[in-house]
Specification:
Blueprint: E1 7-13, H1 16-29, H2 35-41, E2 48-54, E3 60-66, E4 69-75, E5 78-81, H3 83-88, E6 95-99, E7 112-114, E8 137-142, E9 148-154, H4 158-163, E10 169-176, H5 180-184, E11 213-214, H6 216-225, H7 241-252, H8 255-272, E12 282-283, H9 284-292, H10 312-321, E13 325-331, E14 334-340, H11 345-349, H12 360-365, E15 377-383, H13 389-392, E16 401-402, H14 404-417, E17 428-430, H15 433-439, E18 448-450, H16 451-461, E19 463-469, E20 477-480, E21 486-493, E22 497-503, H17 512-523, E23 527-531, E24 538-543, H18 547-557, E25 565-566, H19 570-576
Parallel strand pairs: 6-8, 21-25
Antiparallel strand pairs: 1-2, 2-3, 3-4, 4-5, 7-10, 7-11, 8-9, 9-10, 12-14, 13-14, 15-16, 15-19, 17-18, 19-20, 21-22, 22-24, 23-24
């Protein structure tokens, strides 16, 4: 996660209320933590700030820093402790796995902890790896020091780790000593806490196996070439020929093949369940979000990027060539599934896994329900361009997006550092050569400007961008220029019948099928989804003049700010006239 350099998008001090909020979140995530522990972890008099980080992979992470040490970080709304926090509160927050000291340096290179690298007492049996579920936060320490050296999540449940026979990934490493998040802090070494008490004596001087750690690329390679080892024949049921055969076949599949199988399974399961009577055409993105993803079994995670297809469009192209579906581009760049052959051999022969049928009924019961839409958080920002770059160098580089607050804070610091505030009139700022080049027009000679005028001129010179953060999505969507609004218009059709046209919904990721159904139920009028040569994307058409209903629906139910809805005032303007 942090084994490569990341970009700090912002680092702002936080108030006492945020400090209390973080303490409450820590107690909620880790119920064993006491008030005394919280005082040690977050001293009241220590300076505290929150960093917004964009990782090398484009993921947005927030980290809380206390006294120059990052103590926790949030990924996808889940809180994880750093090694700095675990050193303050050792053996209190999470379960620890122990590995050999020689393995530790490999974590900072991006390696995960494989099952052969975990030191356990085999004689304990099924509970050798504890009592953990998959995806649980854990810490890693070494056989020479019980202080944490890494933080990660379990790749398997404890029982599955035991049954895997020391093969495969044990812990996915998120953060470790030596990575770039650790380097944000004081870069101190772990405290000497003595060897872990759980360490088996027989293993204390053993050399770690070569497959103790592996990067994702190494795992993919090894799974293709490595033959499965024979498991412990003393374990019940594992030594049965059928079990060994099944596990051998699973071991020989690389992660891409496994994800390919899961993607195909979810697609055909959707055709048998939620998409059995779907209205066509449907956007491919909506079909994936509303039908394929919900069809994934709860114990698995579907990710197209980890399959051999890499993109949804390539996966659908394969199904199109096989004759399962038809895909058309009604609008340039926007693909829709226009037909599904339910009589195709692959569809007819598909059967839902017997172990997955328990989830089948609840999914069917939700078919037809209107999914709750959560609007994006929209922030108007300003990008540093070539014109303003001399003013913001070296703190910000070209292309950096800044909020109004960040610009105002930077400008204040710049003026104070260069002593540009007028001594007799503090509301005026003297323009130095850099400010003059940035804010003054050609031929304009002005010795000073008011703070507000200076701020307005700088914002005018910067490039406008909008940041859209959608729920359950870590990386924000950046829109350059003005954000396209949802446009509501009326038109006349044959017989002078009025219709209402709504365009621009796709910018805000509003499901067109669901929106059309809500309009149909709300005004008791027919609705259709069409493409418009004059508009980018597709348009929802509602019979009659429904501007008032559509506008209120977007604001009240979908939470779209009124400033991003164009045409809603038409109804009021006509009534006044």
């Amino acid at each position: 996660m942090f084994n490569k350099p990341f970009r700090v998008k912002s680092n702002t001090p936080i108030k006492g209320s945020e400090r209390k909020k973080l303490k409450a979140e820590l107690q909620k995530c880790y119920p064993t933590i006491t008030e005394e522990d919280l005082v040690l972890a977050i001293p009241n008099k220590e300076e505290m700030s929150v960093m917004k980080i964009e990782t090398h992979g484009g993921e947005i992470v927030t980290a809380h820093v206390v006294g120059k040490k990052p103590i926790v970080f949030h990924i996808r709304d889940k809180l994880y402790p750093t090694v700095y926090l675990l050193w303050v509160l050792p053996n209190k927050l999470v379960h620890y796995f122990t590995t050999w000291n020689e393995v530790v340096p490999k974590f900072s290179n991006g390696a995960d902890l494989m099952l052969p690298g975990i030191i356990v007492k085999e004689e304990i049996g099924l509970r050798a790896y504890g009592r953990l579920n998959k995806g649980v936060t854990v810490a890693i320490n070494s056989n020479t020091n019980s202080a944490a050296v890494a933080v990660g999540i379990t790749a398997l449940s404890s029982e599955d780790m035991y049954m895997a026979g020391r093969r495969g990934k044990g812990v996915e490493i998120l953060h470790c000593i030596g990575d770039f998040l650790w380097q944000v802090g004081t870069k101190e070494s772990p405290p000497e806490l003595g060897p872990p008490g759980c360490q088996p004596e027989a293993d204390s001087k053993d050399i770690p196996p070569q497959n103790a750690t592996a990067s994702s690329e190494e795992q993919a390679e090894s799974s293709e070439t490595k033959q499965p080892e024979i498991l412990d024949t003393n374990r019940e049921s594992v030594s049965e020929p059928t079990k060994l055969s099944t596990e051998a076949e699973a071991e020989q599949k690389n992660p891409q093949e496994t994800m390919d199988d899961l993607l195909n399974y979810c697609f055909f399961k959707a055709l048998k369940t939620t998409a059995k009577k779907i209205e066509l055409p449907v956007l491919t993105s909506n079909f994936y979000r509303l039908h394929i993803v919900p069809s994934c079994p709860s114990e698995k995670t579907l990710d197209v990027k980890k399959s051999s297809y890499k993109k949804l469009s390539k996966f659908l192209d394969v199904l199109k060539k096989e004759g399962v579906i038809e895909v058309k581009e009604f609008t340039k760049g926007v693909e829709s599934i226009s037909a599904i052959r339910y009589d195709h051999e692959r569809v007819r022969s598909f059967r839902v896994d017997i172990n997955d049928k328990q989830e089948q009924q609840p999914v069917l019961e939700k078919v037809g329900e209107m999914e709750k839409y959560l609007p994006p958080v929209i922030t108007r920002m300003y990008a540093v361009n070539a014109v303003c770059l001399p003013l913001f160098t070296p703190t910000y580089r070209k292309g950096t997006n800044l909020t109004t607050q960040q610009i105002r804070q930077y400008l204040t610091e710049y003026v104070r550092a260069n002593q540009l505030q007028n001594a007799t009139n503090p509301s005026q700022v003297t323009l130095d050569p850099i400010l003059s080049d940035v804010v003054l027009k050609k031929g304009e000679v002005v010795p000073s400007l008011s703070w507000e005028e200076l701020m307005n001129r700088i914002q005018t010179k910067l490039s406008t961008v909008y940041e859209m953060i959608f729920p359950n999505q870590t990386a924000p969507v950046i829109v350059k220029g003005e954000l396209e609004p949802v446009e509501i218009t009326t038109a006349s059709r044959a017989g002078n019948k009025k219709v209402t046209l709504i365009s621009g919904l796709e910018t805000y990721r509003i499901d067109l099928d669901e929106f059309a159904r809500r309009c149909q139920l709300g005004v008791a009028a027919s609705t259709t989804i069409t493409s418009s040569p004059a508009k980018k994307g597709q348009v929802v058409l509602v019979q009659g003049n429904q501007i008032g209903f559509v506008g209120n629906l977007l604001i009240d139910e979908y939470g779209i700010p009124k400033q991003f809805i164009q045409g809603f005032d038409l109804k009021k303007a006509k009534s006044k006239k």
